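Write out this protein's structure.
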Amino acid sequence: LQWLFELSSKIGLPYYGVAIIIFTVIIKILLYPLTWKQMSSMRKMAALGPKMKELQKKYGKDKQKLQQKTMELYSREGVNPYAGCLPILLQLPVFFALYRTLIAFPYGTDASAWFLGFNLTVAYGLSLSYHLILPLIAGLSTYIMSKVSTSMSTKTGSTPAGAEQTQKFMLIFMPIFLAYIVATLPSGLGLYIITMNIMSILQTIYINKKIQRMQAEEDRLKTA
C-alpha cells in the first residue's frame, strides 16, 4: 500500500484512497483467470440442463443417489460447480490484511489518509451523516453486481433446480449485510469493497459478451 501511495503521489494524487483503488484493481486483474473459469463453468452447467432434469426425474426420491450421479455428470463434462468459491476465498486474506493495515495505520491523522471526505482509518457507523453514503453505495453496488450475475444465470439456465429462492434471498440479504459491514469497519475497507464491486460488474459484463461471441462463432462453424 505504501509503494502504491508513493506511485500515486508521483502522478499528483498523494492519497492512500487512490492507493487502495489501484491495489483493488490489481487484485481483480490477477483474479481474472479464475473469474473467467467460473463463468465458463456456469455456461457448461447451462448446457447440462436437460441431463440434470433426467437425473432429477430418475433419482428425485433418493437425494444421496441424485447427488452422486450429479457429481459424476459434472466430472464427465469437466464442470466444477464450486469454481465460483475460489475467487472469494482468495480475497479473504487480502481483506483481513487490509483491515489489519488500516487498524494499525501510522498516518491516520495525515491529510493523505483522507479521501473524498472520509478518514480511511475511521469507522463512521450508521449515524445519519454524510458518511452514510459509503455503506449505501456499497450496498447498491453489491445489489447491481448480484443482479448482473443473476441475470446471466437466468438467461443461460445455469441456476440449479431449487436454488431460485436462495438466489432471491441472497440478492436482498447481501447488499444489506455488506452495507452494515462497511459502516462498522474502517472506511478504507468500504472503498476497497466498492471498487471491487465495480470491477466485478465490468468483468462480468465483459466476460459474458466474450463467451456469447465465442458461442456464436462455434454455432456458425457447426452450421457452415
